[in-house]
Request: fold
Amino acid sequence: MEYPPVSAVMPVRNEERYLAESVRHVLGQDYPGPLELVLAVGPSADRTEQIAQELAAADPRITVVANPTGKIPAALNIAVRTARYAVIARIDGHALLPAGYLTTAVATLTETGAADVGGVMAAQGETLFQQAVAWGMTSKAGVGSAAFHTGGGAGPADSVYLGIYRREAIEQAGGWDEEMLRAEDWELNRRIRARGGVIWFTPQLRVTYRPRASIRTLGSQYFHYGRWRRVIVREHPETASFRYLAPPAAAVLVAVGLAAGLAGLAGIAAGGPSAVRWLTAGFVIPVTYLAGITAAGTGLARGVPAAVRIRVPVVLGVMHMCWGSGFLASPGKLHRSRGRVTDARVGQPGATGERTAVAGRE
Reply:
């Protein structure tokens, strides 16, 4: 087949540690067609912008544009406006594309006639803690049954990790919703599907992802995931499932059990009636939960080193409790636009004369 030109778009902010490596994995692709990379750089507290400018100075295929808001969906819309080509490859600053990724993705895009093609977020850690997080992010015990986390067979899907899009599908759907600060790809793919477009998952596309490196950053990440998933469930109740409702239910049960147990201890200390002392039985709930995630860590994660395996229960607890707490604490006013987006969010490409069509069934 004749491979069309591809515009890779990458929102980056505070990515000093991984940016150069991520860019190298994009531009090092053995892709048969023309390739460009647009870096949309948000306000950073590190050397991200300087590194981006240095990379652009060293390779004419790189363009750097400013993203004043620092928001990922805004960065993606800005980058698409700047991009020149009809195929858009959405890349993360934390992601490391494997060899042949773009070739396989564009071939699949053409063969299936899909609007968006993507694959698996193959989390891989460097430190022991990151390796434990990677296990949690690729296990059903951590994230449920999402194919782009745990794998599965090729076929239509609700959403995929990253994504190789037909530009026209992005523009016709109105681009990324700039008020959707998490789950922005899922939300865009929902609008693409509503217009009849197909989102295609293929397990051949495995992108290396570097997980968060500390309990604090992991907890913050999953708390915000939970907050924004509540937005999705609130606006699209049909998406509610066990996978999304289990963490908040677990968080409520653990909190109730702890509160009851502590009240029982306080009653014992104050010499209260025996009925109050029975409240200490509430501790059974958090203890049972801890036993469950410990069993998962020691049983299901047998294939990882012991030093990683002992960290898995902590990782699972942080992921579950923070995601569940974020879901429960998500305010109704969090998503102001309520999914209303316009074509103006994307606008016209930087050089319309260079847009090239991509073949397919559409």
Remarks:
- Residues 264 and 278 are 6 Å apart (CA to CA).
- The longest strand covers residues 199-209.
